[in-house]
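chain below, 87 aa
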Amino acid sequence: MKFTSITAIYMLFWWGCLFLVLPFRLRTGAEPEAFVPGQAESAPPRFSMWRTVLWTTIVSAVVFALFYVNYVNGWITADFFDLSRFR
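prediction:
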């Protein structure tokens, strides 16, 4: 696999994992934190973007490593999903 393909696939995993990681440690305005006037009640009072980026990078690296090891070893291929073999 070429480096550009690896980079593109990793970025797809990273963006997908971002939406997986966003709810981690989510605190809403209903909790006894400082509430900012004019802020939506569902908005988190303190959002740490760098912590989210760090967790997204860690999770996406693990998921991509599983993908790449599967790609190299061929554990799950397109033939695995061929349902016509069960007829």
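The mean pLDDT is 86. Residues 3-77 form one domain.
thats it, cya
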